[in-house]
């Protein structure tokens, strides 16, 4: 029987998958603006590895390809697949991939959790079928597919690749209000083949409709490190909650009972869309082969965030990607991407 594990994001990847925004998604009112961010994002990924671009039809495929090629994105690393989707948050509707290595090579298992539109907030029927559709199209080669009747989004979980999972109680409890902490811990351990689950009780961002996904708050980094979103403005509504989360992180221990090395990310000035505050988190970065793609918000804190990530990921280039258009829909660049481990495609 194969022994699968949940890889860390900084392990070698075969590709990153995205879904192109179009007029049938919630991006329609600001489509040109968000497409410019997607072009920058896809270009940053394609400089280092292939990008699998989901499109709903041939017309969107042709349009997206033209934008990318006109921006001098490496065409040889772009792979388009036509598939139905409701929106573009592939971190949550895309596959969570387990990996296994044995004497016959590297094997993969795609976990297809239920995607409920973040607890029924939005229509998500096509997104819930996305992994199955991509698998049926042969995108993932001979990787096996495991359907898991359990609501879980990829943005809600962080793996260190060595058997430890980090998540938030607020999100998982909202998805499964009748389940106890112990029951949810066992369910996560079983589904994701991990040995430990670390729970955060605190941490949230205004404008975030995911119920406190961990990928906007705290992220694993190599060598027993955690990078987290801090708030140094005592007058900000987030200050107490993020300070409490920082204290929780300081109390966590590694599998061999040592404290984690902690890296606090700076706090951007409030960004608003009218009266609505947007969730601008520097913790929503994406790790690719040799680089960390950092959300940039045209804020003075961008440079300080880059400096923090350079310390946490000394073997990676830190690449800012403009993300103000993305947070209009309450997510950033990690939310719209899903990495695929080496050997999967």
Automatic annotation (TrEMBL):
Keywords: Hydrolase. GO terms for molecular function: agmatine deiminase activity; protein-arginine deiminase activity. It holds the Pfam family PAD_porph. InterPro entries: Peptidyl-Arg-deiminase_porph. The keyword Hydrolase applies. The keyword Cell inner membrane does not apply. One of its GO terms (biological process) is putrescine biosynthetic process. This is Agmatine deiminase family protein. It comes from Coralloluteibacterium stylophorae. The lineage of its organism: Bacteria, Pseudomonadati, Pseudomonadota, Gammaproteobacteria, Lysobacterales.
């Amino acid at each position: 029987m194969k022994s699968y594990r949940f890889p860390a994001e900084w392990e070698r990847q075969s590709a990153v998958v995205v879904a192109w925004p179009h007029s049938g998604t919630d991006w329609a009112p600001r489509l040109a603006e968000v497409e410019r961010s997607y072009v920058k994002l896809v270009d940053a990924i394609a400089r280092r590895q292939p990008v699998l671009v989901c499109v709903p039809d041939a017309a969107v495929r042709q349009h997206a390809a033209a934008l990318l090629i006109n921006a001098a994105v490496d065409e040889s690393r772009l792979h388009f697949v036509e598939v139905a989707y409701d929106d573009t948050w592939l971190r949550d509707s895309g596959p969570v991939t387990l990996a296994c290595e044995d004497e016959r090579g590297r094997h993969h298992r795609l976990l297809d959790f239920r995607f409920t539109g973040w607890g029924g907030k939005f229509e998500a029927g096509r997104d819930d079928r996305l992994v199955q559709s991509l698998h049926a199209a042969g995108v993932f080669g001979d990787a096996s597919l495991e359907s898991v009747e359990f609501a879980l989004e990829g943005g809600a979980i962080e793996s260190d690749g060595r058997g430890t999972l980090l998540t938030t109680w607020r999100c998982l409890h909202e998805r499964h209000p009748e389940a106890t902490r112990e029951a949810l811990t066992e369910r996560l351990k079983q589904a994701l083949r991990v040995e430990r689950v670390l729970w955060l009780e605190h941490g949230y961002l205004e404008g975030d409709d995911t119920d406190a996904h961990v990928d906007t708050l705290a992220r694993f980094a190599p060598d027993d490190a955690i990078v987290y979103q801090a708030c140094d403005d005592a007058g900000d509504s987030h200050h107490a909650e993020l300070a409490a989360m920082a204290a929780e992180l300081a109390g966590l221990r590694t599998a061999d009972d040592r404290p984690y090395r902690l890296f606090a990310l700076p706090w951007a000035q409030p960004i608003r869309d009218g009266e609505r505050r947007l969730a601008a988190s520097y913790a929503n970065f994406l790790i690719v082969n040799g680089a960390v793609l950092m959300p940039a918000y045209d804020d003075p804190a961008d440079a300080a965030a880059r400096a923090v990530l350079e310390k946490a990921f000394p073997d990676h280039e830190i690449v800012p990607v403009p993300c103000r258009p993305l947070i209009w829909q309450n997510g950033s660049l990690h939310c719209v991407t899903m990495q695929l481990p080496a050997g999967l495609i």
